[in-house]
Structure formats: C-alpha cells, structure tokens
Amino acid sequence: MKWPGYEWSGYIGAAGATVAATLVGLGLDAYFHVVNVALVYLIAVVLVALRFSRGPVVAVSVLNVVAFNFFFIPPRGTFHVDDPQYLLTFAMMLGVGLIVSGLTDRVRARAQAQAALEIEAETERVRSALLASISHDLRTPLAVITGSSSTLAERGERLGAEERAALAQSIFQQARDMSELVTKVLQMTRLESGAIKLERGWDSLSEIAGAVLRRLHDRLATHLMMVDLPDDLPLVRVDASLIEQVLGNLLENAARHTPPRTLIRLRAQVAGGEMVVSVEDFGPGLPEGDLERIFKKFHKGAGLGLAICRAIVELHKGRIWAERLPGVGTAFRFTLPLETPPPMPVEAFAR
Amino acid sequence: MNPTILVVEDEPEIRQFLRTSLKAEGYRVVESPNGRRGSLDAGLHKPDLAIVDLGLPDFDGIEVIRRIREWSPMPIIVLSARIQERSKIDALDTGADDYITKPFGVGELLARVRVALRHAVQPENGQRILNLGLTSVDLEKRRATKGDEEIHLTAIEFRLLACLAKHLDMVVTHRQLLQQVWGPTHVEDTHYLRVYMKQLREKLEPDPVRPKYLRTETGVGYRLVADENSGTEP
After folding, report:
1. What is the pLDDT along chain A (351 residues), one digit of tens a residue?
2. CA separation, residue A99 to residues A6, A95, A102, B33 (Å)
3. Options 1.25.40.10, 1.10.287.130, 1.20.120.80, 3.10.100.10; which CATH number does A133-192 get?
4. Which residue has the higher pLDDT, B115 or A122?
5. pLDDT exceeds cutoff 80 at B213
6. Which residues of chain B neighbour A179 with C-beta distances below 8 Å?
7. Nearest neighbour of B103 by CB, restricted to A179, A341, A347
8. Contact assignment for B189 to A342 by CB distance below 8 Å
9. Which SS3 state, helix, strand or coil, does residue B135 take?
10. Nearest 10 degrees: CA dihedral of A21, A26, A27, A33?
C-alpha cells in the first residue's frame, strides 16, 4: 500500500540518511581511510532499503555518490574525479543499494502473501463452520422426508388414513423449513458477494410491519404481540422486501427463543435524525457475551437470520444491535437513516 | 363444462403435482413443457386460465404472457422461483393477474386459481359494492358508510379503491395503481401510494396497522380483499 505521505517520508528519510552518513564520514575522515567512509554510506543505503521502497533507495544511492564525491574524493569540494577507480566505487555503491532494495522488496512481498493466506484460511474456517451447521440443519428434515415419503410410497396401503395424513403433514412441514433455510443460505451468499442491489423506494415502515405480521401470523400466534408504531412516522427510502426480511427474522427469532405467551413488542420511533426500529421481548434475556456474537453467521441457535439482518441493515447505512432490557428481556434494534421525502400531491393536504 | 387450465412449466415433477391437484379439483388440464408450446397451446385450447412458470428453458415466461395478452384477457397466474421481486413485478406489469412463489402448498395455489377464475366471469368494472367488515363502499355512487355513519373519501381515494376493486382479491402493482390513479408521469411516485393507502386504511380498516382488507404485497403492490358477500348488486 503506497500513499503520497508515505512516499514523501521515504525521500525525506533518504536525504536524512545521506546527511547523517556524510556527517559521520566527516568525523571519521581524520583518522580512517576514505574506503571506510564509503562503507558508512553503504550502511545508510541498507538502512533506507530496510525501511522504504525502491524509489527512496535509488535516491539515497545517488545522493550518497554525489556527497561522497563532493566531500571525500580528491579534489575535494568539487564534483571532479581525478582517479577513474572511484567511478567503480560509485557504481558499486549504486549496485549494492539496488540489490539490497530488491531483496527487502521480496521479503516484504512474501510477508504480505503470508498475511493474505492467513485471512483466506480464516474465511475458509468460517465457511466450513457454516457449511457444517447448515448440513446439520438439513440432515434432520431430509431424514424425516425420506423416511416418511418412503413409508407412504411403499407401505401406504397398510396405513390408516390418519397415519398417512400425519406422515404427509410432516413431509410438508419439514420441506417448508428446509426451503426456508436454503433461501436464507442463498440470501446470505448473495449479500456477502455483493450480488444484491438495493431497490430503494419511499416506503412506510408501518406498512412493511403490517405485511410481516400478516405473513407470520400463525408463527407468532403462540406469543403476545404488541405493536407500537406512531401515527406520524416519516417515510423511509428502503428496499422494502429486504427490510421486511429483517423485521420477519427479528420477530421469528424473538418467538423462537422465548417461552410461549411471552410479550413481544414491535416499536419504531424517530431519534437523532434516524428511525430506530425495535423488536423487544420480555423473555429470559441473553447472556452479556452473546449480545454481539449472535450476529455472527455460524452462531448456533440464531442461525443465519441475524447475520442476514445485519448485512441488510448495513447495506441501508443503518446499525443493528442487541441489548438487554432493564429487568428482563432482550431488545433488538436497528436504525434507518431519514431523508427528506419528495413533495406530495396537493390533495393530500386538502382533507 | 369444467374450466380448462393451461400449465406452462418445464419441470415434469412440478407439472405432475399441478396436474394431480388441479384434476382432483375437477379442472381440465393442458400441459406445455416450454414457452413456444405454451403460446401455441393457449391459442389452440382456449383455456379459462393459464399458469405460467417464469423460468422456462426456451424463452422467458414474461414473453408467454405478452403473447397471450395480444389476443386474450384470460387470467394468468405466474409461478416464480426466484427470490428477486423484479421478474415477478415485470410479469404482473406485462399483464399477469397474480403470482405464487415456489415452493408453495397446494392450498395456496388452488385459492389463487379460484379467485382468478371467479374474477374472469365478473363484469368489466369489477365490484360495485365492497363490504369491508362494518364498512361498505358503493363505488358507483361514490358513497362509503360505516353502519349509519357516512365516511368521507376524497376523489383520489375513491379512484384508488376502484382500481384495487377492479382486481379484487388479486395483486395490483405500484406502477399500475400510479398509472391509473395519477397518470403515466407519476409511475415512480410510490410515496403517493404510501400516503393515500394510510389514509384509506385509517378510514376503512378496523385496525389500520394490521390491515385486513387493504393488504400490502411488500415490494410489489397491494391486494384488496373484501368480504365474501361483496357483489355487483347492493
């Protein structure tokens, strides 16, 4: 990664190294042979090469040759060179600089590749954990479907109508659950790969909530639902289908993890220039450490639902989090940014 | 004679289960394994209703709908396996009357089929009287009442309601509603719909937050569901 500030500091470092080497050289000059001064300059090149990229190394090599020539090669104080063998010295100083810089570049590249490999390994680990959890979740319904349907197909005529109906019903149920899981996995994959483009439009959160409550009516029937949506809630610019999924996942999640007849409250309010939507349950509550962890996609129990919620909310430039309610219960909240809605037709105000 | 249903679907397994369940309900079934065949069969058999899969091997189900719509107003229900809303909405805007997302249970499918067939035999302007619980709306006389009490609906609210009633029990897309109520220059102004649907629900629904009659089809449009005894006569 190279950015201008970094590059500049490289060249300043190069100039500083030449100045420092020259000062040290001048100090040594009285006692030692000029060859030792050349070595001081080489050390400066090596130090710059270790710290900076190729550009500054070439710069320090050239500067060193110039300074060495000017201050130490007779006739001193000029850029004139009497003895041609010093030209070889210059060439070698440049050469060593380039070689050292090439070597450090290679070492640096290898370190970066190593880091990339580690990230890849981590991604791979997450992926296989996810795969393991999904295949576990698929295996049970598949076993039920295989078993029940083969019983019906091979032994159907020996069973009573009631038994047949029960087997068929459980095939239906399990297949439906499985299809939901597969949809979620696909959804997560698409969200992660960036394949989902938001289809934003002006929408009403109350409307979206109404649709979710209808869709999940049977599943939420075991719990007490309370809906608290202010009448004057502003419109939001969202992808309604995705926000419906977020609300649905949060409500299902609340129903799944709290005992029957627990109160679940769906709320929305405007605070600090954004809309805050909450699904609060008055169940036993989550342990502190789980509040963040449950949004990870391979977290057991919450499954993919909350990871999908997080991805969708973040696509909308909102935030999502879980918090413990004082006393008892858990709240899942997410925010949606508010924008100024477009003007309305005249009749809307002429009621 | 029993209604004939055309099934345009490439998956034999899905055709089989559609055939079985539709025949068990007494419908006659014509099956087409691809779009080209489906378009031809629609002309050949003149079915009362078509069920069209959106993911066909030869050409898009939307093309089948377009070809049928060139000559026939028969009800069309699309089967959509995709989770994207887009293709579904395109199919509806092209002229499909309703949709059902795979996988679906047979109950859901048969309910859609019944509604679509019932709709096909109704007069052009659809329902004149809507019974929405205690509320009753006479679209022709432009009167809405709750018990003895008169409810005031604005001209646009009436137009919106009439538009949904024309397609009673079936979905109407945002684009179709905006086009018919506000005109072709407003087809993108979905916020109009949000505001007017809210007003309508406040006036007509017993619980506006959980609408029973004016239902939201998220990302697609709206569906007006009236009580059974709604009809063309008061």
Report:
1. 444 455 678 888 888 988 998 988 888 888 888 878 888 888 888 888 888 878 888 888 888 888 888 888 878 888 877 777 777 877 887 888 788 888 888 888 888 888 888 877 777 776 777 777 777 778 888 999 999 999 999 988 888 999 999 999 999 999 988 888 888 888 888 888 888 888 899 999 999 999 999 999 999 999 999 999 999 999 999 999 999 999 999 999 999 989 999 999 999 999 989 999 999 999 887 777 777 777 776 555 556 888 899 999 999 999 999 998 888 899 999 999 999 988 877 664 444
2. 22, 6, 5, 70
3. 1.10.287.130
4. B115
5. yes
6. 103
7. A179
8. yes
9. strand
10. 100
Nearest to B211 among A199, A201, A210 (CB): A210
- Give me the residue from A211, A239, A344 closest to B195, CB to CB: A344
Residues of B in contact with A176 (CB under 8 A): 103, 105
User: In the block, which residue shows the tokens 């570049």?
Assistant: A105
The confidence score (pLDDT) of residue A1 equals: 44
Task: List chain A domain ranges.
Answer: 4-116, 133-192, 201-337
The residues, ordered by sequence, that sit 6+ positions from B128 with a Cβ below 8 Å of its Cβ are B138, B139, B140, B231, B232, B233, B234
CB contact under 8 A, B190 and A201: yes
Are A248 and A283 spatial neighbours (Cβ–Cβ below 8 Å)? no
Asked if residues B151 and B145 have their Cβ atoms less than 8 Å apart, the reply is: yes
* Domains, in order of start, for chain B: 4-120 (3.40.50.2300), 129-224 (1.10.10.10)
Which residues in chain A have Cβ-Cβ distances shorter than 8 Å to B199?
348, 351
- Whether residues A186 and B198 touch (CB distance < 8 A) is answered with no
CA–CA separation, A208 and A233 (whole Å): 13
Checking if the pLDDT of B233 tops 60, the result is: no
Q: Which CATH architecture has domain A201-337?
A: 2-Layer Sandwich (3.30)
E strands, chain B, in order: 4-8, 28-32, 49-53, 76-80, 98-101, 129-132, 135-138, 143-146, 149-151, 171-173, 214-217, 221-224
**Is B154 an 8 Å CB contact of chain A?**
yes
Q: What is the mean pLDDT of residues B91-119?
A: 92
Task: Decide if B194 and A202 are in contact by the 8 Å CB cutoff.
Answer: yes
Smallest Cβ distance to A210: which of B154, B192, B210? Answer: B210
ipTM above 0.90, yes or no: no
- Would you state the structure tokens that stand for residue B16, as one six-digit string? 């089989």
Tracing tokens 């926000």 back to the chain, one arrives at A243
Q: Is B213 on the interface with A (CB under 8 A)?
A: no
* Bond from prior residue into A287 cis (ω within 30 degrees of 0): no
- Mean pLDDT for B148-172 is 92
Nearest residue in A to B191, CA atom: A202
